[in-house]
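Workshop exercise sheet. Pairs work together: one partner reads the sequence aloud, the other fills in the structure field after running the prediction. Swap roles for the next sheet.
Pair: D.N. / O.F.
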Amino acid sequence: MDYYESVVIDYLRTNRKIFLNTEYCIQVDPGKNPQKGAHWYCDALALDFSSTTIFLCEISYATNLGALIKRLRAWHQNWSEIRSAIVRDSALSRSSQESWKVRPWLFIPKDNKKSLEAKIAEVKDLLDPRITELETV
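Structure field:
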C-alpha cells in the first residue's frame, strides 16, 4: 500500500458508518483461486450503512488515468456479474442485492477530475461513480 492509499483508507475509517475491506478481490466465478481475466482487486470495498451503498474504492494519483479508465470500462462490461459476486462472496442475502446500491468511489488528483469525467461518460449512467479529489482527503 502506498502513501496515498493509506491516507484514503484512514479517511474512510474515520466514518464509523463505513465498514472497510482493503485489497478486496472481486471474483466473477466462484472458487478459491481467481481465474485470469475474471477478477479484479480493488483498493478497498466500503460498505456505507448510512446510505446502503457498497463502494468499490479506487485510488489513483497518476497523471495519466489510463489504467483506471480501463478498469471502469471492464467493470461496465461485467457489472451484473460483479454485483452478484460481491453479494455471494460477502455473504449478503439476496434481498440485500436489491436494497444495496453498488458504485465505484474514485479518489484522484484534483487536476485530473474534468479529464476523467469526460473519458468515462459512456460508463457513467450504469456505474454512477463518486469522485473525490485526493487533496480534500
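Discussion prompt: The chain has a mean pLDDT of 90. What would you look at next?
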